[in-house]
Every structure is written in C-alpha cells, then in structure tokens.
Amino acid sequence: MTDIHKINSVTEYNNSVGQETLHPLISVIDFAKTEPFAFVKAQMNFYAIFLKDIKCGNITYGINNYDYEEGTLIFISPGQVYGIESNGEKRQASGTAILFHPDLIHGTSLGKTIDNYSFFSYEVNEALHLSARERELINQCIDNINFELQHAIDTHSKELIVSYLELFLKYSKRFYERQFVTRNHVNKDVLARFENILKDYFTSEQPLISGLPSVRYCADKLFISPNYLGDLLKKETGKSAQEHIQLKMIDVAKEKIFDTEKSISEIAYELGFKHPQHFTRMFKKQVGISPNEYRNMN
Asked: Which of 59, 131, 138, 296 lies 20 to 30 Å from 177, alpha-carbon distance?
C-alpha cells in the first residue's frame, strides 16, 4: 500500500512544494510557480481547495480514484486522505490551491458557519464545474486573498482575509446550487435509484437485522457521499434524506398495518425498531394518529 503522509500545518505543506509562507494559517499557491515535486497521498490537518485547469492523472480521495476534470473546484476537509498516484518522480503541478487551518476562522462568522458548506465532505467526483463567468468571480476572490497575504500583517489582516474566504465559499455554494439544476437529469436518476434502494431494503429482511437504513447506507449504494445526497434531495424535493427514509418507512408501515394478523409490535420489529413505542411515536408524529387508530379507521 502507498504510504500516507501526515501534513499538520499550512507551513509544512508550503515547504513540501517550495512555497514561501506569508501567513502561518492560510496560503494561496499557484502551482505553475512552484518547483516540480513528487506527488504523494497525504492526510492534511486543514481545509484545502484546489482549482484545476487541466487533466493531470488520477487522484485518490478516501479509498476511490478519480480523474481530474478541466476547470473544477475540489474541496477537502481536515483529516481527509488526498493525493495523486505517483512513482516518486518529480512533476510540475498546475492549478491553484487555497489552504487554511481551522484556527484561522475560530471566533469568526465563518467559524460558526463552516459546517454549512457541506461540499467539503463531497467526494471528488462531485466536484464543482465552473462556467467562465463563475471562474472570473472565483479568481477575483483568490486575488483578493492573495493581495492581503502580500500585505504586511496588521490588525485588519485576519478580518479581511476571512471575509474574502467566506465570500469565496458563498459563491461556491451558489454555484453548486446552479450545478444541481443544470444536472437535473442526473439528479432524477439518483432520486429514482434512491427510491428503489429504500423499496428493496424494506421488502427484505434487512430492517429486522440492521434496523432502519442510514443515510450513509443509501449514499454508499448510490456511490455518492452522504452530504451530496442530502443536499441533492433538499434541492430537488425540499426534504432531507432522513425525512425521505422516514416517509418511506411510514408508507411501508401503513401497508403492513392492514395485515390484522400481525400486532403493531411485530410490525415495529419488522421495520427495524428495537422498541415498539419508538415506532408508535414516529408514526403518530408523521400521520397524526397512532398505528392502532390508523388500523381501526381503515
């Protein structure tokens, strides 16, 4: 297996590619201006955003391999394994990177909202593909951050750098929402397959063995990340992945309740509930009446 290098700081990454460190917690790297270096797989203890202009071989994110697309933004969260397959030879990289340590945004508005940018947990094959106009706006944000890094650090530096970084992420969120719309036909296919996964799950013995299906279980079956699935469903239907799972469970439960030979407790166990009262509580919350009341009404 390929060794995974741990990179704990922005400075450590800068040193590995021959980049001068202008700020210990954030860096903007133009790879065209760096010296050739040997690509490795690494686990980075900070956020990283890569803007790629050209195809440049396979990369690894988690356990999967992907090809770079042209003109894409890739977002990596702290602790993720990221890298490019290499035989150890030095190569000239291309594109741009923004690296920033979580300490940079602590105590700021971005620090409070960073979890809202769920694309940091997307897989690489769910990268953001930019239009020419979007690319211009992204480049402006990068230039603004770079300008502040070139400026001597003063009392305004952190606030300005973080504000430009936050603007960058807000634009990225907007562009991702646009991408969900422009990939509507792909999204419809995902929704259909998601429904089939839930149908197959609830018509099997799996609930009795494993309980209710998790969002991650469904995402893994679809070969996408849980966050991407959740955001896609929210955009397409207005409901979260968890809500979809619960609603499907309720539909199946309603059918089972018509079978009067089974008690409500038996049905609850079949649906994956360890405690029937939890099923009754969830059913009443969704339907407005208890399972027994629903059975008597119908």
From this structure: 59
